[in-house]
Amino acid sequence: MGYKEDGKWWVSQSNFAADVLKGYEFPKKIEILDTTLRDGEQQPGIILTRKEKVEIAKKLARAGVHRIEAGTPAASKEDADAIKEIASLNLGPKIFAFVRNTPEDMKLARECGVTHVLAEIPGSEHLLKYGKRWTAERAIKAAIEATQAAREEGLYVTFFPADSSRASLEFLIDAVHQISEGGHMDSLALVDTFGCFSPEGAAYTVRKLKSEFRVPIEVHFHDDFGLGVASTIAGLAAGAEVAHVTVNGIGERSGSVALEPLALSLKVLYGYDTGIELDQLKSLSNAVAEYTRFAVPPTRPVVGDRIFGWETGMPSSLWVNCKNDEPLAMLPYHWSLTGQSEPKLYLGKKSGKDNVKTWIQENNVVLTGDQEQELLGKVKDLSLSLKRDLTPDEFIELTKSL
């Protein structure tokens, strides 16, 4: 893969310059853990039923996600039943449950049929002190006892120290050493609970953890500064093996790292194929939007409904000229790569002659050159009065007025 793949994408050559590539330490394999069914549902206002969770899990498996975090068994019977059903379906991805660091939660997860857990406990000094009102010693002791219980249950444990991005590295490393030595830990999640990592800070911390621990490092970031995807990629490029995501980036506050731009960026901008079926992203996004009742913004990267199209005259003309010979002259990647529809030309205040000509052809309208110019003026006036682009019906009505 390179900066240009015929019929697929065309991005900057600089992405693949030797001086750029030599700075990466991507692992041989990156796994994607989707936490839509747990962290995504924690977005206020989102309620997913058991049936909806099962359907989303099936679509996640179809999209090639490697791990599905199916929910928190202790949250409700509905959640526990959903986890049991998802685990029983043998969809292909590894199924994780999200648990507190208590022996009881480990037993409950095992009863739900999962073999993998993410075991959470506050991971920063201040969140323990002010949020949990626990001492560090108490938290470490609880994590040791719980992860020992998890091992006895035969569970794979991803230790999940919340807010570890804001912990002092000395505190975090010391605590994790105590827990890994006294308890059980198969992998370690670096958790940016409040989305406050810069990409450089994320990469630095991942490298520190990689130098201290022999277990895989996972990155679980949020998007409070709009840098979640960039920081996750920086963490992966520093050697982290697992990225945590949600569909449409749903989650608490500003949301979590979105699956769609992460998977697409890794493949197209970095040349790293995670195995995610990119052409499934749009349909997956649509399904989650339907089940969560939270609409996707029309210009959201990768999955927005209006990202492939133009209203303004100049780019519309450029598209008309190149679409049949080389559509990627006007696009960073082909719409079909992510399951999108062919670009369209919109009609509005900023449109030009080629927008009008396209709409005339699509609606089988016959006009003279002077009428086309008059129609363009009417389009602009109506669009300005409506403060939006026009519908096909409104266009037809304008043609009747000529």
Automatic annotation (TrEMBL):
The keyword Glycoprotein does not apply. The keyword Transferase applies. Residues 30-282 form the Pyruvate carboxyltransferase domain. PROSITE patterns: AIPM_HOMOCIT_SYNTH_1, AIPM_HOMOCIT_SYNTH_2, PYR_CT. Signal peptide: none annotated. One of its GO terms (biological process) is carboxylic acid metabolic process. One of its GO terms (molecular function) is acyltransferase activity, acyl groups converted into alkyl on transfer. Gene3D superfamilies: Aldolase class I. Coiled coil: none annotated. It comes from the Bacteria. InterPro entries: AIPM/Hcit_synth_CS, Aldolase_TIM, PYR_CT. Belongs to the alpha-IPM synthase/homocitrate synthase family. This is Isopropylmalate/homocitrate/citramalate synthases.
